[in-house]
Amino acid sequence: MATLTTHLRQRAWLALAAVGLLASGSIAPSVRAEAPAQPSSREAIAPTSTPPVITPPTSTPPVTTTPVTTPPAATSPAATPQPTNPQTQPIAPPIANPANPATPAALPVKLVLRLRERRVYVYRGNRVEASYPVAIGKPSTPTPTGTFRVFQMIKDPIWRNPWTGQVTRPGANSALGLRWIGFNQLSNGIIGFHGTPTVNSIGRAASNGCVRMRNEHVVELFDKVHMGATVVVEP
User: Fold this and answer.
1) Do the beta carbons of residue 117 and residue 235 sit within 8 Å?
2) Rounded distance, CA 220 to CA 225, Å?
3) Per-residue pLDDT tens for 157-167?
4) Against a cut of 0.90, is the pTM above it?
5) Contact by Cβ (8 Å): 152, 190
6) Collapsed DSSP state (helix, strand, coil) of residue 215
7) How far is CA 51 from CA 48, 56, 222, in A?
8) How far, in Å, CA of 214 to CA of 219, rounded?
C-alpha cells in the first residue's frame, strides 16, 4: 500500500513538472505529421545557408537615342520645271518707242529763272518737274535777263577770288559750293548757278550777278540739266 502511494506521488510530480515545462516553452509539443520524403542519393540537397541579397545594378542604364531625321531640302519653285502651255503664258506689254516724243525722259529740259520770285523752275517739256529758291545779283551787279544756253558744268569747282587772286579749295564751304552750271559769258566773267555756304542770302538780291543755291539743291539741278539746255532769265 505504501509502495502504491509512493508510485502515485511520483507520477503526479512528473505530471506537474511536465505542465510547468510546457508553460515555459522549454519543451515543444509533439505534432504528429507525415515525415518528409528523404531525398535520394542521386538528388542534390539545397544548402540551408542565408539567401543571397539582391543588389540593384549601379551602372547607368543605356540611353536610348532618338535618331534625328534631316528633313528633305525644300525645292525652290523656280527650280521645278513647269509645263509650258502657250495658252497660259503671260503676254509682255509692247516696248515703248524710245523716240516717242510723249516719253517724259525724252522731252527737253529748260530752266526758267524768275528774278522777282527768287526761284528757278525746271521744265521738262511743258511740265514743271522741280523748282528751287535762289539768291540773285544785287542792284549794283544784277543778274542779266534773256535767253541763254548751258555751256559749262563742273563738279567741285575751284574758286579764285577776283579781287585778291586767292584760290579756295573745292567743297561745300567754297564760295562756289559743290556744283557750277555756267550759262552766260560776260566780258568780266561768267554768270552761272552754283552752291553757296552763305545760305542766309537765299531769297535775296545779294550776289555779284551769279545765281546762288543751297548745295543739296544745286546737286539735284546738276543731275537734271545737260550741256546745251536752255536757260531763260525773266525779270
Assistant:
1) no
2) 9
3) 998 888 888 99
4) no
5) yes
6) helix
7) 8, 16, 106
8) 9
